[in-house]
Amino acid sequence: MEVTPAAPVALLNGAPADADAGGLRALAQVNYGHATTMRVRGGAVQGLGLHLARLRQGNAELFDTQLDEAALRGWMAQAARQAGGDCSMGVIVFARDFDHRRPLQEVALDVLVTAAAPQPPRTQALRVLTRDFLRPLPHLKHVGTCPLFHHRRQALKAGRDDALFVDGHGADARIAEGTLWNIGFWDGHTVTWPQAPALRGTAERLLQAGLEAQGVAQERRPVTVAELPAFRAAFSCNANAVQPIVAVDAVEYAEAPGLMRMLAAAGAHAPWDALD
């Protein structure tokens, strides 16, 4: 029997978001806030503590205030239940009263929680194009995403699948991050995580912990464009998927199924934390 997916859910401060169009309009117009995204399975999330820590950091830097985490978890659990228990979830924290003319003014926080049918993990091998760009406030998952999607569009128009950000032109440019993902490299013995101004994703951190539990060698260091041919394989990771990267500009990589199995095992290592 075919199961009809639950309708997408959007809660603004725990109430249906469509009942407060003004709040959503403020989010779209002001574009000042921070976010996190995650997979929910059976009302539970891997790395929930990492997501909450990310939101705490965003709140401290953008609003100089604390988030009511008990209320937030209640709204997240509510959205997950309404979406059927399994979903792709996003949390955006903003303030409809934020005034760019008086950015130090104390404001009341608004929280938008969305839940939609879970996206099937992407397995497509990626061919990416380097672009000279670093996100503003790269350590925060903020809502200023226009440049990310612009660079992705440019990569697609050039016949690639996505963009990989680097901090300059030429061989000495450092690898930073993808549009919505982190990148790792494999030389046959060690997983290398490039270090440059970037958002350190929850998926990256969970993989690092899982690889450590397996005893897999890892290093975190700057990686330049000149070093790319020295690696045997590469991969992207975010909350939805770990995908092989088979080309960065003119550098080609093997798909390395053994590496992908190792990463899958590492990703499965983290426990699932209940939202309520």
Instruction: Say how many strands there are.
Output: 16
**Residues in β-strands, percent:** 25-35%
Low-confidence stretches: none
CATH superfamily heading of the largest domain: D-amino Acid Aminotransferase, subunit A, domain 2
CATH topology of the largest domain: D-amino Acid Aminotransferase, Chain A, domain 2
Overall pLDDT metric: 94
Helix-strand sequence = EEHEEHHEEEHEEEEHEEEEHE
Percent helix, as a range, is: 25-40%
Main beta-sheet annotation: 9 strands, mixed
CATH architecture annotation name of the largest domain: Alpha-Beta Barrel
How does the overall form come out from the CA principal axes? globular
Whole-number total of structural domains: 2
Cα distance spanning the termini:
30 Å
Structural class: alpha+beta
Rg measurement, Å: 19 Å
What would you call the quaternary organization? single chain
Using the coordinates above, name the CATH class of the largest domain. Answer: Alpha Beta
Q: How large is the count of helical segments?
A: 6
Description:
By secondary structure, this protein is of the alpha+beta class. The chain folds into 2 domains: 108 residues, D-amino Acid Aminotransferase, Chain A, domain 1; 143 residues, D-amino Acid Aminotransferase, subunit A, domain 2 (D-amino Acid Aminotransferase, Chain A, domain 2). Helix content is 28%, strand content 29%. It has 6 helices and 16 strands. Strands 7, 8, 9, 10, 11, 12, 13, 14 and 15 form a 9-stranded mixed β-sheet that branches. Strand 1 and strand 2 form a beta hairpin. Helix 5 crosses helix 6. The radius of gyration is 19 Å and the shape is globular. The two termini are 30 Å apart.
